[in-house]
């Protein structure tokens, strides 16, 4: 069943790789490399790791994804949210800056890789479906706000610690006295410049008559310009001696070969974060990959993506990196720049490798404030306040799950936030299904269609009560069904038949089956017939496996129309089958 | 809204209480008292508590329930499963036999009472619905087996400890050498005698021509006879000196006024067990109450039951008792003996109080083996192996939840068992809803009814694909819906319209709404129309609150029949509305 080509998607495109594709891929790789180098340094700083670790995490993972991934444009590497989650997880087990902290981050990447691979082998990709859109959207918005706030200290040039929004705010407030004016100027200039290049430079260039692709390229080079200018300023004015914190020495050279810790205690502490990082990373990555694939009518295989991301993380760990996933901005840039195949990713990896070996001495005087500005500008684009408003308007339970996710991320932490959001959204779903909507229905005049008596002008037969239950019947709502039916028959002394219309009943479990038996028993002893209509095939199959049909004294009708017709005109009458088709008024025609 | 009568159900029957009712209640109380005294001693022993604690727990709780309960026949007191759960919970925090153990049991009763009262105030009675029948049935069967096994040591006269089935078995095996022959003889005789009185005595007496009520009364007196005979044997043959373990001194007198511990650490340790005991006790109690109420067309108010059971547990705690709930055997006996009102419970309480004050010295020489026999005979009647078979035949997921509950109770413990069962049944439900059943449907010839093309001989229109999705659309299945639709349209180049038939869609959440938008967008760009039919009122209301309808280019039809008709015969044609009613073959009639 499983072909080599599905295990190694590279075999799908490599044999027919053309020169045109190579050109497109090379151009895309150049642009992405220019974008990724500063971003990798910045995200490593966000994760509390030495800057070169961000570069290491951007090389081998890209290669691994190029071989095993099914998306042709996805770019894998360190991303903001996963960097924040890494900082939160590793911060619990080791002190930032220590050797143990680095080892824990590497181990976390390794564990995430194993979790993703295990999910792939066990076909658990569907687990990601339990992260609802509002929870993901709330999680990313809140993480973006938290990350941006955590970077403000670098802009101000002060020291401040904290993991939650209140802690970060009070840390900033306490440190206000120690603001370094030089850092502040650099930070504000860099942030403003980056926002400007992101939002306004491209339209300006286009208005000047530049070709779109060139305008785009110059726009994307904004961070590079900020970096070059700020390094020149630091060197030129000797700002490092005036309290502007710089990146400092970055060891040049190839990524090291690293091994994760095999300390079981550490694994135990990191397992839950690794699962959460895997799930969040997988959802983020697959969403991006599917969005881009849809534009070119390509296809993403989620389960293969688990394998590819798993191997990317293992590759990251073995080369001294930390957890990675597909990133939104870089993938879109890669796609827009014309990447045709995953080889663009491999070329990018080569570009970053070259930067790691040759360019790191250049970054020595780079102010941390500029990296912070890069992060702030990147993550604020993730904040989607409009989604909050739209969700509020559409669905209060969805909004509740989103709000709880946002507040928990901001006030408690990222892991607690995602856990609370998922738990609440599942509980709300269960709560809703435990209180099914039920409607008394009647026939729409002139049709065979039955709808809610409260919403439509319908015909009902005296002596027959037709109830439609709008939910699968299972343990959580079995009792509610009994109560609802007993309530509705209580004030109807002339009732002869109750028909439970089941078009929305997709399953009846053992608990609900007992409730149906109880209802039938109770109605029958009160002299009322209890019938079912529009029971679906799979449900009927299950009922036949039980002894329900043997005991059941009522009838099971194919359609509600048949049910009402048969119970009002007993079959022994002369009515022909044609009466079923709405022409009874014309008299027998059969 | 809330009347005094609904808060105090006693006001519903007390004002019209008659002499006839009083006679019935007194007779029922006498029979139940005779049954309850040995049972209370036995269940206290099962819970690891001094025997008189079982008596204390059978007095005030009965009075509290008489005032606040809505069932007229329910008898509240110590029951087997809750006694086992008490032993498991309290055994974690104190050594059996110590003063701390007793305090912890009292505190557990108090906490259970508070949990039940909190559930009542917060209207959380619905939580009990999340315990499915197979999980409860499996839990009770496994608990029965565990309890019976735990009592075998008393029959053998050996010492053996253990909480799980393997521990209990190996304990029994290790102790086999120390069997006390006198105890063994008493134990086997008592067990055999009790089984015989339970199963065969009543039919035998009836065959001898006794009146049913007298036969029943004599049958119920079996345990009393066993107790009297065994006490006489112990005293007559001096068996206490020959190693037969006896109940020993039971302090005579009124129940003490007791206070629970207010140690927060202890509360924390007991909170989860208290919640589980409350839920299990509530479910068991309400099931019994509803079964009995249905027989006499009375009504149980679940929320008021929470209050009544909560106050019963608080009353138990304050009078030195342990957690209580409505018991099956005693309630049935009470009902069968003719109890008319909850006053029967109050009379029973008076009877047990009298026994506590005057009769306890008589029980000094009662062999523990006879109490163990009482428990074994009682709990083995709870074991329902037929339910396992029926569940297997009907539903594999239900069976899985049941089997996991049974195995976890036997191998790990009662709390783990109920937690595992509930979690698994919820996960299986979520898993099922995350993989909705979908069917391509066509028109049943001669009707307006649409059914699965794979199950029925139906008519389909070329160029129109009608898909019915059999589940509410929510985050867990939104992606599956997209994939399923893309898969089904992939090999249909001539397709013009896709109709999603939604009679079983009871809700569409924000995630699924995005998926619907994505599907519409994708189909429209491929030149295929995407329409909905039979969208329910509440779902339509929600869609109207979003901007979905503004963007949606397809149509939303009231019925699937309308949809197909309208898409095959464009509305500008001369077909009259009558065509909708199946009489098109007769020509226009409008």
Structure write-up:
The structure is a homodimer of 590-residue chains. Chain A has helices spanning 4-7, 10-13, 19-46, 51-56, 60-68, 80-91, 99-121, 133-156, 165-175, 181-207, 212-220, 222-237, 264-295, 302-318, 328-336, 343-359, 368-380, 385-394, 396-411, 414-434, 475-490, 510-525, 537-545, 548-551, 560-568, and strands at residues 76-77, 325-326, 438-443, 450-452, 464-469, 497-501, 529-533, 556-557. The first copy, chain A, has 590 residues and is mainly alpha-helical. The first copy, chain A, has a 6-stranded mixed beta sheet with strand order 4-3-5-6-7-8. Chain A has a two-stranded antiparallel sheet with strand order 1-2. In chain A, strand 6, helix 22 (510-525) and strand 7 (529-533) form a beta-alpha-beta unit. The longest helix of chain A has 32 residues, at 264-295. Chain A is elongated, with a radius of gyration of 31 Å. The first copy, chain A, starts with a helix and ends in a 22-residue tail after the last helix. Mean pLDDT of chain A is 86; it is low at 572-590. At the A-B interface, helix 8, helix 18, helix 20, helix 21 and helix 22 of A face helix 8, helix 18, helix 20, helix 21 and helix 22 of B.
């Amino acid at each position: 069943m499983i072909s080599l080509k599905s295990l190694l998607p590279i075999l799908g495109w490599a044999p027919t790789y053309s020169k045109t594709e190579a050109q497109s891929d090379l151009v895309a790789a150049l642009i992405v490399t220019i974008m990724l180098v500063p971003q990798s340094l910045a995200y490593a700083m966000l994760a509390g790791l030495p800057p070169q670790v961000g570069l290491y995490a951007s090389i081998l993972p890209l290669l691994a994804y190029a071989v095993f991934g099914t998306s042709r444009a996805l770019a894998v590497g360190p991303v903001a949210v996963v960097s924040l989650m890494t900082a939160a997880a590793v911060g619990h087990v080791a002190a930032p800056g220590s050797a143990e902290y680095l080892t824990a981050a590497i181990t976390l990447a390794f564990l995430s890789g194993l979790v993703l691979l295990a999910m792939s082998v066990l076909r658990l990709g569907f687990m990601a479906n339990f992260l609802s859109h509002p929870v993901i959207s709330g999680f990313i918005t809140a993480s973006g706000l938290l990350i941006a706030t955590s970077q403000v200290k670098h802009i101000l040039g002060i020291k401040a610690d904290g993991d939650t929004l209140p802690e970060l705010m009070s840390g900033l407030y306490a440190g206000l006295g120690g603001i370094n004016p030089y850092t502040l100027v650099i930070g504000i200039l860099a942030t403003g410049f980056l926002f400007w290049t992101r939002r306004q430079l491209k339209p300006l260039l286009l208005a000047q008559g530049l070709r779109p692709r060139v305008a785009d390229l110059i726009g994307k080079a904004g961070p590079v310009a900020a970096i070059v200018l700020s390094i020149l300023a630091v060197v030129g004015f000797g700002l490092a001696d005036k309290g502007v914190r710089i990146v400092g020495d970055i060891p040049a050279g190839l990524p090291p070969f690293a091994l994760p810790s095999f300390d079981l205690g550490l694994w135990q502490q990191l397992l839950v974060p690794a699962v959460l990082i895997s799930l969040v990373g997988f959802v983020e990555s697959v969403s991006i990959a599917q969005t881009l694939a849809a534009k070119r009518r390509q296809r993403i295989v989620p389960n293969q993506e688990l394998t590819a991301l798993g191997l990317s993380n293992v590759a990251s760990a073995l080369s001294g990196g930390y957890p990675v996933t597909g990133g939104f901005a870089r993938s879109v840039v890669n796609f827009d720049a014309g990447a045709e195949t995953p080889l663009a990713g491999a070329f990018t990896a080569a570009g970053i490798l070259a930067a790691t070996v040759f360019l790191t001495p250049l970054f020595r005087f780079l102010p941390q404030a500029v990296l912070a500005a890069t992060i702030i500008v990147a993550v604020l684009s993730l904040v989607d306040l409009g989604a909050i408003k739209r969700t509020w308007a559409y669905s209060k339970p969805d909004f509740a799950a989103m709000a709880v996710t946002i507040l928990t991320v901001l006030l408690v932490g990222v892991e607690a936030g995602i856990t609370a959001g998922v738990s609440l959204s599942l509980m709300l779903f269960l709560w809703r299904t435990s209180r099914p909507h039920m409607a008394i229905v009647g026939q729409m005049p002139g049709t065979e269609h039955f709808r809610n008596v409260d919403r439509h002008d319908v015909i009902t037969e005296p002596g027959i009560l037709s109830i439609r239950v709008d939910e699968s019947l299972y343990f959580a709502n079995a009792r509610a069904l009994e109560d609802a039916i007993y309530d509705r028959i209580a004030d109807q002394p002339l009732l002869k038949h109750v028909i439970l219309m089941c078009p929305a009943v997709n399953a009846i479990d053992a608990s609900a089956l007992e409730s149906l038996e109880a209802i039938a028993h109770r109605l029958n002893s009160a002299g009322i017939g209890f019938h079912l209509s529009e029971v679906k095939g799979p449900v009927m199959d299950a009922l036949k496996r039980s002894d329900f049909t043997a005991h059941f004294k009522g009838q099971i009708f194919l359609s509600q129309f048949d049910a009402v017709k048969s119970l009002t005109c007993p079959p022994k009458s002369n009515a022909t089958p044609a009466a079923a088709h709405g022409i009874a008024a014309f008299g027998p025609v059969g």
